Amino acid sequence: MEIVLTAGALYVIVLLRAGGTFAVGWLAGAGARRSRFAGRISSAKFRRVERAIQRWGAPVVAVSFLTVGFQTAANFLAGSMRMPLPRYLPALFIGGAAWALLYATAGLGALEVLGRLFAGRTALGVSAVAVLLLAVCGVVAYRRRRPVPPSGDTAPDAS
User: Quick one: DSSP state of residue 42?
Assistant: First the structure.
C-alpha cells in the first residue's frame, strides 16, 4: 500500500512539474515569436525542426522521464516548439507513470537499505555515503578537466 500511495503522490508531482515546464516553454516560445528573434525562428530550417518535434517528439518526451537531466529540457522544448496537446499529454501521462513507479519502487528500496544501514551500522552507512559523494565529485572533476574539442575546423593551421 505504501508503494501505491508513494507512486500516486509522485505521479501528481511529476504531472504538475513537467506540465508546468511544458507551459513555461510554450509561453517562452510565444514570447520569442513576438520578439526581435522572430525573424530567426521563422526560417524554413527552424520550421522544419518545429514540425519534426511536433510530430515525433512525443516518444522523446515519454522516454525522457527515464533519464536524469534531460526530462526538463525535453518538456520545455516540446512546449516552446508548440507540440500539440493531443500528442504531448499521452507522452506526459505514460512517461510520468513510468517515472513515478520507478522512483516509488527503486527509490524507496534504496532509501530503506540506507535507513537500515544507518540504523544497524552507522559508521558503515556514513562511509558508504562518503564513498558515493567522492565518486560523484571525481566524475564531475574528471569531466571538467577533459579538454573541450575545438568547434569549427579540426584541420591544423597551414601557416
Answer: G
pLDDT digits (tens, 9 = 90+) for 15-34: 999 999 999 999 998 888 88
Nearest 5°: phi and psi at 86? Answer: -60, -20
Sign of CA dihedral 110, 96, 72, 50: positive
Alpha-carbon gap, residue 110 to 145, rounded angstroms: 31
Cell of 153: 575546423
Distance CA 21, CA 79 (A): 8
Read off the pLDDT of residues 66-107 as tens digits, 9 standing for 90 and up.
887 788 988 998 998 889 999 999 999 999 999 999 988 888
* Helices first, then strands: H and E counts in the chain: 6, 0
**Which three three-digit cell numbers place residue 146?**
577533459
Could you tell me the pTM of the whole model?
0.67
Buried b (16+ CB within 10 A) or exposed e, 74-91: bbbbbbbbbbeeebbbeb
Q: Is 141 helix (H, G, I), strand (E, B) or coil?
A: helix
DSSP string, 71-118: HHHHHHHHHHTT--HHHHHHHHHHHHHHHHHHIIIIIHHHHHHHHHHH
